[in-house]
Amino acid sequence: MVAGLPPDGGAGGPGARIAREPSATGRLSDGRSALRQAALAVAVVALAGCGRHPGAADGAGSREPKAAVSAAPGIRRDEGPVRQRFPELGDVAGAEWTGEVLGSGRSSAPGPTDVRMSGVVRLTDADASRLSEEYVWQDGPGAPVVSSLLRARVPQSTRWQTSADFTAVVTRGRYSAAFHADFGRKVIVFDAVNPERRGD
Questions:
Q1: At 96, is the pLDDT very low, low, confident or very high (cuts 50, 70, 90)?
Q2: Beta strand extents in 13-75 (DSSP E only)
Q3: Which three-class secondary structure state does DSSP give residue 193?
Q4: Are the CB atoms for 189 and 171 separated by under 8 Å?
Q5: Mean pLDDT across the stretch 143-147?
Q6: Assign residue 12 a region: left if phi > 0, alpha if psi is -120 to 50, beta otherwise?
């Protein structure tokens, strides 16, 4: 089951057209290519609502999953999808995030689509204080892993912290995600596969 994303508010968002892929003869393959395009069209307007076997491990230091096609060629700044999937973050002072389809794109059979969502969230003062006090945080082993489009947006920090308790509360064990926090900068960076929409 999938949870739909709102229409993109700017150019290059999830509503952008997907280029048709020509075959070696210059013609579109009637079988496999058409099926791939149909799957991508669905994923462009959705983030998966049910977790499957994700491509990233829980916690810090997870390996970056391989993305075949980006469902969001640009960085989005609408905060609604972030609040709906991660209400524990609070009011959210600002957010930059991306969504992309995962997989090799080689399968000719239809099936569930894994969608990766990465983002950088600016917390309010109140939420930064609340989160730092409510959960046990430990220094992380390194910088957050995010989609390639978002790497330049991740602040340079020597105090990234992670919390197994916070991750468990947010994901409820239903999907894979990693959250890195720098409460001095009031920033949380997330990387999740198939995050579930939970509220409006």
A1: very high
A2: 46-48, 67-69
A3: strand
A4: no
A5: 92
A6: left
- Is pLDDT above 50 for 42? no
The 3-class SS string of 86-149 reads CHHHCCCCEEEEEEEEECCCCCCCCCCCCEEEEEEEECCHHHHHHHHHHCCCEECCCCCCCCHH
User: Residue 179: what residue type?
Assistant: F
pLDDT averaged over every residue in the chain: 73
CB 35 within 8 A of CB 107: no
Q: How far apart are CA 152 and CA 154, in angstroms?
A: 6
Q: Which has the closest alpha carbon to 64: 141, 116, 140, 121? A: 116
Report, in angstroms and rounded to the nearest whole number, the Rg of the chain calculated over CA atoms.
17
Q: Maximum distance among all alpha carbons in the chain?
A: 62
| Residue found by looking up tokens 């596969």 in the block | 193
Of 144, 147, 130, 122, residue with least CA distance to 71: 147
Q: Rounded distance, CA 18 to CA 29, Å?
A: 15
What residue type is 76 in one-letter code?
A: R
Q: What six digits make up the tokens of 6?
A: 């709102």
Query: What is the structure's pLDDT at 112?
Result: 73
Is residue 121 within 8 A of residue 159, CB to CB? The reply is: no
CA distance 189 to 136: 17
Q: Identify the DSSP state of 38.
A: H
Distance CA 147, CA 97 (A): 9
